[in-house]
Amino acid sequence: MRILVGVALALVLQCGTALCAEPSNPIVLKSIGETEIEVRTPQGTVEKQRIPVQKAPPGAEIIYTTTFANQGRKPAGNVVLTNPIPDHTAYVGGSAFGENCAITYSADGGKTFAVPDALKVRTADGRERPALASEYTHIHWVYKGELAPGKVGTAGFRVLVK
What we know:
By secondary structure, this protein is mainly β. It has one domain (3-161): Immunoglobulin-like (Sandwich), CATH 2.60.40. The protein is built from 2 helices and 14 strands; from the N terminus they run βαβαββββββββββββ. The strands form 4 sheets. Strands 3, 4, 6, 8, 9 and 14 form a 6-stranded antiparallel sheet that branches. The protein has a 4-stranded antiparallel sheet with strand order 2-7-13-10, with no helix packed on it. It has a two-stranded antiparallel sheet with strand order 1-5. β3 (27-40) and β4 form a beta hairpin. The relative contact order is 0.26.
């Protein structure tokens, strides 16, 4: 099965009430899905480079990165990103990143979030067990403090196409 990356990524941005009440939100988002390829340099070494991905076959790894920039004149507080794990993919454990962000995960469709050690799922017989990274449904980033005017942050994660 192939997936189209452009429709696979959904993103929600929440912000503090004072900022959302302004006529235009000063936080600007840009999201991209990429894959890594190996490229031989003129010096003969091999380097990894990221390129935008349009289609991905089963087994391909996709890196989703979201940049968020404060283009307002005031610091922006309560910047929160929530990203579902795209259908037909599985989260690569330990791959989420976000400088100055607290990162939590959901295994219940985004209803609750926790750190990996505290994330649980229920089995068919009603027992609770630790969630596997491949069972995560959403990732949640909370930017710590305020994002200064002109400052840019990044958050992202990797998935494998099923």
